[in-house]
Amino acid sequence: MSAAPGRHPRETGHGEARPPRLGEWLAARVLPEASRDAALGDLHERYLARLRRAGPAAARRWYLRQVLGFLARVPFARARASASDAVRGLFTRSGLAADVRHAARAAVRERGLTAAVVLVLALAIGAAAVVFSIVSAVLLRPLPFPDPEALVMVWDEYPDESGIVDPKPITLAHYEAWRGEVDRFAASGVFESISAVIDAGRWSERVDAALVSASLFSTLGVRPARGRLFTEDDDRPGAPAVAILSDELWRFRFGGDESLIGRAIPIDGVPTQVVGVMPPEFWFYDPYAVRRSYTGAGASSARLWRPMAGRFAAERDYPRYRMVARLRPGVTREAARAAVAAIERRLPLEPSSADGRVRVLALEEQVAGAVRPRLLGTAGAVGLILLVAAINLVSLLAARFDARRTELAVRAALGAGRGRLARALLIHAGLLALAGGAAGLLLARAATPPLLALVPRGLPLSHRVGIDAAVIAFALALSLAIGLAVCLLAIVRLGPAGMAAGLAAGARSVAGRFGGGRMTDALIAAEVGLSLILLISAAVLLRSFVATSRTDAGFDRRSVLTFQSVLMLSAPGAAPDFSFFDRLEARIGELPGVVSAGSASIVPFTRWGGTAVVRIGGEAETAARRVSYRVVSSGYFDSLGIGRLAGRTFGAADRPGAPLVAVVNRAFVGQYLPDGAPAIGQPLAITRGRSDEVEIVGVVADVKEDRLFAPALPIVYVPLAQSPTFMRQFVVRTAAPPERLVESIRQAAAELDRAQPLQDFITLEALIGQSLEEERFYAVVASAFAGIAVLLALAGLYGVVSFAVRQRDREVGVRMALGAGRRAVYRLILWSGMRPVLLGLVAGCLGAAAAARVLRSLIHGTVAVDPVLYLAATAAFAAVAAAACLVPARRAARLDPVRILNQA
After folding, report:
1. Which of 276, 325, 845, 873 would staple 185 via disulfide (CB 3.0–4.6 Å)?
2. What is the pLDDT of residue 77?
C-alpha cells in the first residue's frame, strides 16, 4: 500500500518510517512545484521498501543520495527547459521575430521620426567614422614593420646655448662607435635623404632618394618583393653602384619590367645595377623629408635607395644622419640611452653637450608624437558631436515613447510584462541605430576623398586612411551603442509609472510646459551649449585662417613660378659648371610671357633653411649672432617684388674678384644696428664654412620666410656670383598663367644641358597655400563639425517644441477660448522653447572661452577671440533657434479653438 503523496506514516515494523528531515527539506526546495508532491510520495514509497529490506541506516543513506542527485540534475534541467522555451519563443508571434516585424512596420509607418533619427545618426556617425579612420591609421594601428615596439630612433642633442630643442642628427663617427659597442641593440642602421637623377626620355628627372647603410632594411625587418637587399659588400668604398627601387617608381617609370632586376640603369650619370624592388605597401619614414612641392609630395617616402659606400667619408663628423635601431628583448629605451650616452662621452670628438646627452625615441612616438595632440583634439570635437546627437536622440525617442504611453499601458494591461515592453522599444531603437550607422558609413565613404585632399602633407601614414573593416565595425558598434543607450535613457525618463498612467491620462494634457519637463530643458540647454562651443571654436579657426592668409608676405606672390635645380657634375671629381645656372636664368628671361627671372639658394616658403654667424664692424667674437642667410642673383629682388628701402641691390659689378657685398633687411637693421646708425657702408663678418668680410650696400623690405603668422627674421643676402651654390631655386614672374611655362622652361634647360634636371615646379601662391594647409584643414574640419552640431541642436529643439505643441492642442484651444490672443500664444511657446536655449548659450560662451585657450596652444597662428565674435556667434545661434521655435508657434496660433474643443 502506497502512502499518499506528501504524507509519511510514522509507524512501521522497523520503528521509523519518516525519511531524514534534511533530505525532505532539500527535495521540497529543489523539485518543481507542479510535480513536487508526486515525486516526494514516490520517493517515500521507495524509501519504505529500502527500509524493510536493508534497515534504517542503509535506507537513510539511500534517501540522501537520491536528494543529492536531485540537487545536481534538477536545476540544470529546469535551465535547459527555460532556454528551450526562450528559443522557441523567438520564432513565435509573441517572441523576438514578432517584435522585429512590429518595429520594422513602425519605422516605415513613422517615416518622419525614422528619417530624423537616421539623419541625426548619419551625420554624427559619418563624422566619427572619418575621424576614426585618420586616428586609427596614424595613432592606433601599429607601424608597418615587424615588432614595431622594439624600433627606436637615436639622436644627438644641440648645446643648450643654441636654443634649439629639436633632436640633432648624428655623425657617422658616432654611429660606428655605437654600432660596435652598444650591446642593447639587436640591429641598427642609418640613412640620409638625397635626390637622384634618372633619364626620363626628353629630359632628366630628379626623384626623392635616400642613402642607407646595408643594415637598415634588415633592422626595420622588411624584405624586397623582387630581388635582394643590400649586403655589406655593397656598402664598401669602391663597390659597384647598386640601387633598390620603390614599387611605384618600378611600375610607373619602368613599366613593371621584371627583367630590370640585375640590369644597369643610369642614375646620376653612373650605370647602376638594380638589385631589388620593395613591396607596394613599404613605407619609408624620414622626419626630414617633409617639404612642399608642385607634385604634392608631402611626408614623402623615398622612391630609390642606394648604399652609402663611403660617399661622404670626408664628412664623417658632420651631423646629417638619422639612426634607427632595434632593441634587444627586455631592453628599455632608458637603458639603451644610458649605454649610448656613456659611449659618446668617451669619443675623441666634441660631444653634443657637456654630459654627452642623447635621445632615444620610440619610432612610433617619433612618427606620431607631433600630430597626436591635434588628432586627439579633433576626436574630442567628434565626441561633442556624438554627445549632441545622443541628446537629440533622447529627445526624439522620449517624445515618441511619450506618445506611445497609451499603447504601452494597454499592452501591459493585456499581459505584456515590463521586460517585453522594454525589449520592443530596444528593438525599435536598434533597427533605427543600424540604419543610421549604415547611412553614416556611406556619408563617411563619400567625405573621405575630399577630406584627404585637405590633410596636411606632414601627416604621417595618411596613405592608410580609408573606410576599412575596422572603421565599419567601429561605426556600427558605435551607432548601436548610442541607439541602445539613448533608448534606455528614454525608457528611464518615461518610467513604469508613466506607462501605467497612460490609461488614465490618455494622450491629451491640458497642463504642463510647452518645452517639456526639466529633463527636456536640460537636454536642450546641453545641446545648445555644446554646439555653441564648436561654433565659436570654428569661428576662431576660420577667422585666424582668413586673417593669416591675407597677411602681407613682403613680396608680390601673384604670377610667380618657382622650381629647383641641383647641379650635376659632368664626371666624378670634375669642376662644377656654375655658369649653367646663369645661362638658364638668362634664357628663361627671354621666353615669351616672362616678365623677369631670378634665383636664390632658398626661396621663401619652401621649408628649406640656411643660417650664418655674423658680427657687425669690430664687434668681439662673443657678440656674434646667427641670422638667416640667402645667396641670390641680381634679378631675385625684382622678380619677387621685394622693395628696396636704401642703397642698392646686386648688379653686374658684383662679380667674382670684386669687393664682397651684402644686402640686409629691415628686421636686421632694427634688431642689430644702433638707433640712427647708418646701414649702408657698415662692415659685416660672415662665417659660414669660411669667414668673409663684406660691406652692406643696401636695405630691403622684410619678407616672411616660412609662416605668414611668424615675425620676419633678420636676413643677410649675398650675391650668387660671389658665392655660387650647387642648388638653386628659381623665381619667374610671368604675364601669362605660370603653369603654361613649365614645358618651355624644361625645354630651354634641355637645350642648354640635357643632363641637368629641373624639379618641384610650383607657383608661389601655391607654396604659400601649402604653408597654411594645417590651419586650413583644422578650420574646415571644425567648421563642418560646428555646422553638424548646430544643425542637430536646431533639429532637436524644433522637434521637441513641435511635439509639445501638438500634444497640447487642447490646452491652446482652451486658452484661446478663454480670451488669449495669438500674440499671447506666440509669447508662451517662444518663451518655453527659448528658455533652455538662453541657458545653453550662457554655458556655451563659458566653455568656448576655455576651448579658445586650448586651440591657441595646439594650432599655430590662432588669434585671440574678441567679444564681437562671441556676440555675433551667440546672436546668430539665438536667431536661428528662435526661428526653429517660431514654426510650431505659428501653427499653434492658427488653431481653431471651436474645432479643438469639439474634438475633446
Report:
1. 325
2. 67
pLDDT of 509 strictly over 80: no
φ/ψ (deg, to 5) at 529: -60, -50
**More confident call, 362 vs 428:** 362
State the DSSP code for 95.
Answer: S
Residue-wise over 229-256: b if at least 16 C-beta within 10 A, else e?
bbeeebbeeebeebbbbbbebbeebbee
d(CA 707, CA 508): 64
**Grid coordinates belonging to 532:** 555653441
Distance of alpha carbon 833 from alpha carbon 828, whole angstroms: 9
Give 739-743's long-range contacts (Cβ < 8 A, gap of 24+).
Answer: 739/561, 739/763, 740/593, 741/561, 741/591, 741/593, 741/594, 742/561, 742/563
- Contact assessment for residue 804 and residue 744, using Cβ atoms and an 8 Å cutoff: no
Residue 278's closest CA among 311, 320, 248? 248
Is the distance from CB of 362 to CB of 333 less than 8 angstroms? Answer: yes
- The DSSP letter of residue 290 is B
Q: Would you call 620 exposed, middle or buried from its count of C-beta atoms within 10 A (0-12, 13-18, 19+)?
A: exposed
Give the tens place of pLDDT for each residue, 88-116: 444 444 566 777 777 788 777 777 677 87
The answer to whether 305 and 212 have CB atoms below 8 angstroms apart is: yes
| Residue pointed to by grid coordinates 635582394 | 228
- Per-residue pLDDT at 124 exceeds 70: yes
Write out the three cell numbers for 659. 669687393
How many CA atoms lie less than 13 Å away from 140 in the CB half-sphere? 15
Phi-psi region of 678 (alpha: psi -120 to 50; beta: other; left: phi over 0): beta
Three cell numbers at 816? 484661446
Rounded Cα–Cα distance for residues 673 and 666 (Å) = 10
Rg (CA), the chain: 40
Give the pairing type, strands 304-307 and 322-327: unpaired
Nearest one of 746, 317, 740 to 563, comparing CA atoms: 746
Residue 424 identity (one-letter amino acid): A
How many C-beta neighbours within 10 Å does residue 644 have? 14
Q: Are 211 and 222 in contact (CB under 8 A)?
A: no
Burial class (CB in 10 A: 0-12, 13-18, 19+), 459: buried
Query: Alpha-carbon distance 857 to 866, whole Å?
Result: 17
Beta carbons of 706 and 607 less than 8 angstroms apart: yes
Q: What mean pLDDT is reported for the chain?
A: 79
For residue 388, what is the enclosing H or E element? helix 372-403
Tell me how far apart the alpha carbons of residues 834 and 877 are, in angstroms, rounded to a whole number: 11
Q: What is the dihedral of CA 739, 745, 750, 755, to 10 degrees?
A: -80
pTM score: 0.70
The C-alpha atoms of residue 267 and residue 228 are separated, in whole angstroms, by 19
Q: Which of 508, 389, 464, 425 is nearest to 804 (CA)?
A: 508
Residue 700: strand pairing partners: 644, 665
Q: Distance between CA atoms of 723 and 609, rounded to whole angstroms? A: 17
Q: What's the number of CA atoms in the CB half-sphere (13 Å) around residue 439?
A: 17
Q: Which three cell numbers stand for residue 837?
A: 536655449
* pLDDT tens string 797-817: 777 777 666 666 666 666 676
Decide: 424 and 103 in contact? Cβ < 8 Å.
Answer: yes
Cell of 805: 505643441
Q: What are phi and psi of 593, to 5 degrees?
A: 90, -5
Confirm if 855 and 782 have CB atoms less than 8 A apart: no
Cell of 498: 508613466
And the C-alpha cell for 737? 598663367
Q: Which grid cell is 56? A: 534504517
Residue carrying C-alpha cell 638667416: 628
Specify whether the CB–CB gap between 712 and 702 falls below 8 A: yes
Amino acid found at 698: G
C-alpha cell at 571: 664626371
- How far apart (Å, rounded) are the C-alpha atoms in residues 249 and 251? 6
Q: What is the pLDDT of residues 703-718, one digit of tens each?
A: 988 788 888 889 999 9
